[in-house]
Amino acid sequence: MKFDTVTIKDIAKALNLSTSTVSRALRGSYEISPETKKLVLEYAEQINYRPNPIALSLKERRSRAIGVVVSEIANTYFSQAINGIESIAYNKGYHVIITQSHESQEREKVNVQHLVSRSVDGLLVSLSSETSDISFFKELHEKGLPIVFFDRIPDEIETHKVVANNYQGAFDATEHLIFQGFRNIAHITSSAFLSITKERLRGYKNALEKHGIPFNETLIKHCNHGGMIVEEVEEAVNVLQKGENKPDAIFCAGDRITMVCFGIIKELKLNKELGFTGFTNTNLAHLFSPTLTAVRQPAFEIGQVAIEHLIQIIESKRPITKFETKMLDTDLVVRESSINVNKEKIKAKL
Amino acid sequence: MKFDTVTIKDIAKALNLSTSTVSRALRGSYEISPETKKLVLEYAEQINYRPNPIALSLKERRSRAIGVVVSEIANTYFSQAINGIESIAYNKGYHVIITQSHESQEREKVNVQHLVSRSVDGLLVSLSSETSDISFFKELHEKGLPIVFFDRIPDEIETHKVVANNYQGAFDATEHLIFQGFRNIAHITSSAFLSITKERLRGYKNALEKHGIPFNETLIKHCNHGGMIVEEVEEAVNVLQKGENKPDAIFCAGDRITMVCFGIIKELKLNKELGFTGFTNTNLAHLFSPTLTAVRQPAFEIGQVAIEHLIQIIESKRPITKFETKMLDTDLVVRESSINVNKEKIKAKL
DNA sequence: CTGAAAGCGCTAACAC
DNA sequence: GTGTTAGCGCTTTCAG
């Protein structure tokens, strides 16, 4: 250590002991006499000894660090989830290494490889919107690397997963719009193969079905970059607006798409005529104009549950074979943007 | 490597070479014959060999990783800065390890210690709002650890620093409010000892002075937790509102304080009577009601400049003694919140 | 041009 | 109860 030159060797030398004795004393091994222990511990304290985690990692193939892979930290959902992750990890003595895929499959892979080669003890992953091929994760997982997926999860890997109830969230949002009297509800969402996309679409469809509204494929728009590319969303809105089946409301999936789309609608001054809601975890929804009706996920808790499960796998003595998918409830917060100001509210029954 | 068992030793064995030869071949040492090199390289490629960065770090006391310490990633300023950092680091082959202090000095210290013990090659630091004692960083820096400070920088350490022109940003914002006819301008800001606080306060004062408005201490409110604690900001607004010297405008420093304060004002329905502006890098300012006049920092660029300087220090052959503080311009984006709707605009000359 | 050996900091058999 | 030694994966003298 360039900046922390104290090693176990220095202690050994100073105290006229062997490095192994010191090592054992430091970790409180039962074989060491209380006096020696005391001696070593006090001296270590005094010279401010810190074990070198790199040497430890090399030796033990573990690092007490866990790796997190998300698409981008600027997304409030993810920064909240990361805070949840940290809140637990910190207390259990794990360090958290955060990486961003920026919705790129390649970047995601590079990050994971780096994390693995750094001997992280486990991985917390939310897939990038580009990631269709998950064989890479599968291999890692089969080799025994503890992985917990959250938010955007793969079907094909058997491990713990933690998600919001995306189905219900989408169902609630859509039904709310229906209750408001909207009938032509567009849905702008992410890549078709993402788990969250499928679930939300299912919720949307079921709500329509429940209320006897025929599903119309042309009202579904996919932004494959999850809103990272503004033009994709603009295009979606434009096509919808110009189509013969012009929507009277829009329901967006995903933080980024929701925000971008909301901005576009506002730009086009379509607020008055268009009901709007979407998934977002922003804390600023009440400051908008109109204030934004939003489906909110318990991101912090999702992060917490995910890391708890991960640590459980990491610290489990025997290999885990029974995995569960934990689902947490979403919360529809109704504000102005989804209120139907034009039409009279149509009574729909629950 | 549990998940990547291929080591240099395996290659050596398979090719009937010594590990040192393989090592040298892999790194293209001039001493190795072209044939051997080719042999090794191709085989390595074939079995997908990846050097173990942990072993490397242990040996070389460097990691090709740099550590970042910010108060919280949920702050748009920081997530933008981090994206700037990553954009450069990634291309230069460095990995970025992000940590959050959550405005706690202790947490900041723990994070830095961890990063250092992981042999990061350098540190990019924006101080927590609690951090008054920087002797810890000073020691590290004196021992030779490359550190670049950005945003919240310490006076007492001689190294590269990168900041926005906080003075000018505050000056512009304040003067803008003055041009709008506001005279009793409150300033809600962070801990008094933070560099950004001082600079912004200076800008605020100078703008007042320039326009012959007397400075009034009671209009300055410090939120020592940088807006992390909502009550602090509420308290500040309340005291201002109830004071004998009620402000006609508020200028906030810092992303978090600005947002929280804006929310409070809106809650209290003070929007109409109170001019408002503040430092924030949110991309959503135009969606608010009223739309938010903001001082925006070039966060992405600040991150880029910071990492460039850091890498320059890291890779410099001789110790650097000449350090500079780079200052980037802020941008005042005028929207509705700062427009004086009650009083007639008073002509003030530039 | 290539190999043997030491060592980075630490742990864990295996002695004694 | 404590010391000796080997080894984690890699680089780097030092020999040849």
TrEMBL record, chains A, B:
The keyword DNA-binding applies. Residues 6-60 form the HTH lacI-type domain. Coiled coil: none annotated. GO terms for molecular function: DNA-binding transcription factor activity; transcription cis-regulatory region binding. It comes from the Bacteria. SUPFAM superfamilies: lambda repressor-like DNA-binding domains, Periplasmic binding protein-like I. InterPro entries: HTH_LacI (IPR000843), Lambda_DNA-bd_dom_sf (IPR010982), Peripla_BP/Lac1_sug-bd_dom (IPR001761), Peripla_BP_I (IPR028082). The keyword Transcription applies. Keywords: DNA-binding, Transcription, Transcription regulation. This is LacI family transcriptional regulator.
